[in-house]
Design goal:
Number of domains: 2
Radius of gyration: 21 Å
Number of strands: 12
Bound molecules: pyridoxal-5'-phosphate
Number of helices: 14
Largest sheet: 7 strands, mixed
CATH architecture of the largest domain: 3-Layer(aba) Sandwich
Helix content: 25-40%
Oligomer: single chain
Length: 380
């Protein structure tokens, strides 16, 4: 079955008890055994829950994987996955990525004795050179948050496979509707379902998807052992969100590209970082591995922090807030907001400057969004 059908039906047959068409919220911690030594399909909700299972199976189908796992947050998914690694292990990470991932890797995971090395994964020779006998994992995020850099999924996966190194890709920015990393040989897909997959800014959640049975078994063991799973109500909400993923992503994509083209011509804009623009240095790679660009991108305001703050302070329809992927439009300042957990020199080295603005374009009317930015720019 195709994507739009899977998003509505995968993992979600009518409920066996009463035939409920929508997956019920199994708000229960425990399940009655049928008899002594005869558990049912589920026994305890940390280990498994029917609402969660429906979401996990749906997300696995959408990413083209065989196993899905739903977590309390995107960071819970990351922390659970990274619990596989220990002292002496070496992990290669793209040198520009989500601030929370950077913080988790450089504090909690590094303190366990895992060596974290940031490498520009856009340079395939640098990837090859960085691999050591102790390298266990390459961590990709494409496009990156907030700089919209891409990594070649197929090329990095091939190098990793040659060296028997696993790969994980954070696919939060595009969702499986626009990019399916497993199709390019990536081993595990990570999502903050908080963003596009849920799409309504009313849940925090995360997910891991894989087709590797050995990794799936390890992830399942850790999800249960660490207790980082998502609760049934949150799973229900994400399932409801995912049903409209395809139609939402089309609208996000159209609006964001419209705004990117408008900003590109604006005299008060220094540059626009959007992989759908022909001027993006990796536009050809975007066309190769993505079927759309999503709704989140960044741009640099001409001038410095003062000009940028004037823009941020004068929007009305765009809400000044962190996060992304909801139906409503958000605007934020990575330097002081989402990426503040990164040391200043790391931010600067990455290209997160004071005049960088990230927007998450919602599915409102495009003309209203442009008019809002136009009014705010007039005050810059
Ligand atoms: C938000 C985000 C995360 C973390 O997810 P939470 O649900 O906030 O824990 C990870 N990666 C990316 C790219 C994100 O945008």
């Amino acid at each position: 079955m195709r994507f739009k059908t899977l998003s509505i039906h995968a993992g979600q047959g009518p409920d066996p008890t009463y035939g409920a068409v929508m997956t019920p919220i199994y708000q229960t911690s425990t399940f009655a055994f049928k008899g002594v030594e005869q558990p049912g399909t589920f026994d305890y909700s940390r280990s498994g829950n029917p609402t969660r299972k429906a979401l996990e199976n749906c997300l696995a189908a959408l990413e083209g994987g065989t196993h899905g796992f739903a977590f309390a947050t995107g960071m819970a998914a990351e922390a659970t996955f990274l619990a596989m690694y220990g002292p002496g292990d070496h992990i290669i990470v793209h040198d520009d990525l989500y601030g929370g991932t950077y913080r988790l890797l450089t504090t909690v995971i590094a303190e366990k004795g895992v060596t974290i090395e940031f490498v520009n994964l856009r340079d395939l020779d640098a990837v090859r050179k960085a691999i050591r006998p102790s390298t266990k994992l390459i961590w990709l995020e494409t496009p990156t948050n907030p700089l919209m850099n891409l990594q070649d999924l197929g090329a990095v996966a091939a190098i990793a496979k040659e060296h028997k190194v696993h790969t994980i890709c954070d696919n939060t920015f595009l969702s499986p509707y626009f990019q399916r990393p497993l199709d390019f040989g990536i081993d595990v897909v990570l999502h903050s379902t908080t963003k596009y997959i849920n799409g309504h800014s009313d849940v925090v959640g995360g997910a891991l998807i894989t087709s590797d049975p050995v990794l799936a078994e390890k992830i399942g063991f850790l999800q249960n052992g660490m207790g980082t799973c998502s609760g049934p109500l949150d799973c229900f909400l994400v399932l409801r969100g995912v049903k409209t993923l395809a139609v939402r992503m089309e609208e996000h994509n159209k609006n964001a590209l419209g705004i990117a083209r408008w900003l590109d011509k604006h005299p008060k804009v220094e540059s626009v970082l959007h992989p759908g623009l022909e001027s993006h240095p990796q536009h050809a790679l975007a066309l190769k591995q993505m079927s759309g660009y999503g709704g989140t991108f960044s741009f640099r305001v001409k001038g410095g922090q003062a000009e940028t703050f004037r823009l941020l302070g004068n929007v009305e329809l765009f809400t000044l807030a962190e996060s992304l992927g909801g139906v409503e439009s958000l605007i934020e300042h990575p330097w002081t907001m989402t990426h503040v957990s990164m040391p200043e020199d790391a931010r600067a080295a990455m290209g997160i400057t004071q005049n960088l603005v990230r927007i998450s374009v919602g599915i409102e009317d495009l003309d209203d969004l442009i008019e809002d930015l136009d009014r705010a720019f007039a005050k810059v």
